[in-house]
UniProtKB/TrEMBL annotation:
Highest classification ranks of the organism: Bacteria, Bacillati, Actinomycetota, Actinomycetes, Micrococcales
Name by which UniProt lists this protein: Putative MFS family arabinose efflux permease
Cellular localisation: Cell membrane
Chief location bin: membrane
Matching PROSITE patterns: MFS
């Protein structure tokens, strides 16, 4: 799995940098609120604008990529992120930051959907192995993001935004030189293709499942810093632990559980445990030690979920992988967009426990959605290739590269 073309490693490296942006701002939410005199729900809009624009923009990623090629799409996404992050760091008000985070979300949409499709199509071995590689990049980026955000945020809340711009500039250089030119698709994708893909009940059901579990995911990510009420450095360390757990289970644990118990049974148990963790956070919100332990433990479940859901999406509908990824991401990011704002609002107007109860309820509904979808996911655990075929593919790839 780890013997891959340099193009795959180039995209994987850029993916690490891109995914750092998800958790990078987490440690500075409270400092931004304090220094710019904003409420929790206002600051949570940094996640909402980012996720909402990213979700809607996913619908056009295939249209753009199929017309200008994957490499140009990836580079365009990275450049937009550089601009959005830099301008966010230069802003003087929360709403200005929210607006530039929306631009950041547009760039991330162009990059993320294209990166997944590029890695899956270019990597040696099976789709499952390619997705594990992608999830490794995702997990590493999510793990390192809060740590870097905490370190830079300890200097100034503007630091993480400028840090992203610098790191993305490095990613642009690596992608430009290491990724070969990719021509436009023979048949351009239309705006209607992702909606057509959602006609497949398996893909739609998995997307709805992801939308609902994202309520729990982004409630934890965007709201927990407020009841924790710690400085940026300590928040960064806590979410670094969360990210390490996520990265470990996504790469090491998820494939083993999938092989032993099957994809859907593993997901059903995993989502139930995540809901239970959020329920414990709801009960123990006033105890910081409970929140810290639960945040880190939740990373274990989220890593398993991310890997297995992404792989299921790639297999659930007989459509091009880029189209399936765009359709699925459009639906699931709606949950990621609404949850942060709703959590902040509920925490302000009801009490600090309610956001976690709502997050737990969303994840339990995800269990129900996946249960209903299960009949349409038969065969997703079938082996794509025998071991012999995989070895033959690798030998062929090596002989071609040496020719």
């Amino acid at each position: 799995m780890w013997r891959q073309p340099k193009a795959v490693w180039a995209v994987a490296f850029a993916s690490v940098i891109a995914f750092m942006g998800i958790g990078l701002v987490d440690p500075i939410l409270k400092p931004i609120a304090d220094q710019l005199h904003a409420s929790a729900s206002q600051v949570s809009l940094l996640f909402t604008s980012y996720m909402a624009v990213m979700g809607v923009a996913m619908l056009v990623t295939g249209v753009v990529s199929s017309r200008i090629g994957a490499k140009k799409t990836l580079l365009a996404g990275l450049v937009i992120i550089i601009i959005g992050a830099g301008l966010a760091g230069s802003s003087q008000t929360v709403m200005a930051i929210v607006g530039w985070r929306a631009l950041w979300g547009l760039g991330n949409a162009l990059f993320v959907a294209t990166a997944l499709a590029t890695i899956v199509s270019s990597a040696r071995g099976s789709v499952a192995q390619a997705i594990i590689l992608y999830e490794a990049a995702l997990g590493l980026g999510i793990a390192v993001g809060p740590l870097v955000g905490g370190l830079l945020g300890g200097i100034s809340w503007r630091g993480p935004f400028f840090g992203v711009s610098v790191l993305m500039a490095i990613a642009v250089v690596v992608t430009a030189f290491a990724l070969p030119a990719t021509p436009p698709a023979a048949k351009p994708t239309s705006l209607a293709d992702p909606f057509r893909a959602l006609r497949h009940r398996g893909l739609l059901g998995v997307a709805i499942t992801a939308l609902l579990y994202n309520f729990g995911f982004f409630t934890l990510l965007a709201y927990t810093p407020f009841p924790l009420d710690m400085d940026a450095h300590r928040i960064g360390l806590i979410f670094f632990g969360w990210g390490v757990c996520l990265a470990f289970t996504s790469v090491v644990v998820a494939p083993r559980l999938q092989h032993r118990f099957g994809t859907v049974p593993t997901l059903l148990v995993n989502l139930t445990l995540l809901a239970a963790t959020l329920a414990v956070m709801a009960i123990g919100t006033d105890t910081k030690a409970v929140l810290v332990v639960c945040v880190i433990v939740a990373g274990l479940f989220l890593g398993i979920n991310n890997t297995l859901v992404t792989e299921t999406v790639m297999k659930a509908a007989p459509v091009e992988r880029g189209t399936a990824s765009a359709a699925y991401s459009f639906v699931r990011f709606l949950g990621g967009a609404l949850a942060p704002w709703l959590a902040g609002k509920l925490g302000e107007e009801v009490n600090v426990h309610v956001p976690f109860w709502v997050g737990a309820g969303g994840v339990l509904l995800a269990v129900l959605a996946l249960t209903v979808t299960r009949p349409y996911l038969r065969g997703i655990d079938a082996e794509e290739e025998t071991k012999v075929e995989e070895l033959e593919d690798e030998a062929l790839a090596v002989s071609v590269s040496e020719a």
